[in-house]
Amino acid sequence: MKLKSFFATLGACALLTASVAANATVITVDNTDAGFTSSGLSYSTYESGFIGSNYMADARNVSGDFAVWDPTSSTDWLAGVWTVEMLWNSGPTRADNAAVTIDSGSTTVSTTVNQLLNGGIWNNLGDFSFDLSGASVTLDDSNSTSGQNIIADAVRFTLVTAADTISAPTDVPAPGTLLVLLAAAAGIFRLRRK
Ligand SMILES: [Ca+2]
Ligand SMILES: [Ca+2]
Q1: Cα(66) to centroid of ligand 2, in Å?
Q2: Closest ligand to Cα 31
Q3: Which ligand has the minimum distance to the alpha carbon of residue 156?
Q4: 69 alpha carbon to ligand 2 midpoint, in Å?
Q5: pLDDT per residue over 145-158, tens digit each?
Q6: For residue 175, what are the contacts with CB-CB under 8 A and spacing of at least 6?
Q7: Segment 169-181, tens digit of pLDDT
C-alpha cells in the first residue's frame, strides 16, 4: 500500500469513528410525559411555539408554582454527563428570570432562564453530571414579579459521556476506534514490507 493510500484509509476510518460517536442518546421529557410533574400549572395552547400537544403555564400573582422534568424513568437513562436544554414558548407576560434548579441526584446547580426570549427553540442550559437516580430539572416561580408566568413545555437530555466510561478508562475501545487502530497497524506492516 502506498503512503497516500494508507492515509486515505486512515481518513475513512476516522470518519467512521465520528459517525459512531454521532449516534447520541437523547431523552426528551415533554409536559405530557410520565417523567413530568407540576404544581399550580395549567395546560395551554394559547401561544404557538410549543412541542407536543400543549404546554403548561403557572398562575400569575400566585407563588409556589413549579414544574419538574425527571428523565430517570427512561430506559436510556444512565449516570454520566448530559447536555440539558429547555424549550418554552414566548409571550408578553413571561418571566424574564425564571428559576431553574438542576439536581444531579447528590448536588444542585441553580440558574435562570429568560422566557420572554428564545421561545420555540432548544435553549442550552449547559452540561451537567448526573447520578443514576434522583436526577431532575425544576422550574419555579420564586423570581416572578407581578403578572409574570413561568412556562413549562419540554426538557431534552443529550448524553455527552457515560459515567462508566469516565471511571473505567481501560474499557474496550469503541468499534470505530478499534478499526482505526487495525487500519493503522495494517498500513505500517505493509509499508515496512515494501
Ligand atoms: Ca409540550
Ligand atoms: Ca405563580
Answers
A1: 8
A2: 1
A3: 1
A4: 18
A5: 999 999 999 999 99
A6: 20
A7: 555 555 555 455 5
